[in-house]
Amino acid sequence: MPAARCARTELAPGGWVTGRCWLGCEREDLPVQWVGPVEVGIERADLYGCADCLARLRARVLEEAGRR
User: Fold this and answer.
1) Is the torsion defined by CA of 25, 26, 31, 32 positive or negative?
2) Range of the domain at 36
3) Angle at 48 (CA atoms; ends 52, 40), nearest 5 degrees
4) Is residue 9 part of a domain?
5) Which of the 8 DSSP states describes residue 50?
6) What was the pLDDT predicted at 13?
């Protein structure tokens, strides 16, 4: 299945769609949330993450920010 392809404007903040996680686990056909845009060279895509990967990402952000 291709990655979730909903435009950001179609998603409510915190909204979930069915698609592929881009944040490491790369599982498909599960609820994912839009994280933000990603750019590589001149190419741009929407980045999505599943609940498990988003939780790990949040923990790393908090750790890096010294709030943990």
Assistant:
1) positive
2) 15-64
3) 125
4) no
5) -
6) 54
Number of domain units in the chain: 1
Residue at 25 is within a domain:
yes
Q: How far apart are CA 48 and CA 18, in angstroms?
A: 10
Is the separation of the CB atoms in 11 and 36 below 8 Å?
A: no
Within a domain: 8: no
Residue among 11, 53, 61, 57 nearest 34 (CA): 11
Residue 67 and residue 61 in contact, taking contact as beta carbons nearer than 8 Å = no
Q: Is 56 within the bounds of a domain?
A: yes
pLDDT tens, position by position, 16-40: 999 999 998 999 999 999 999 999 9
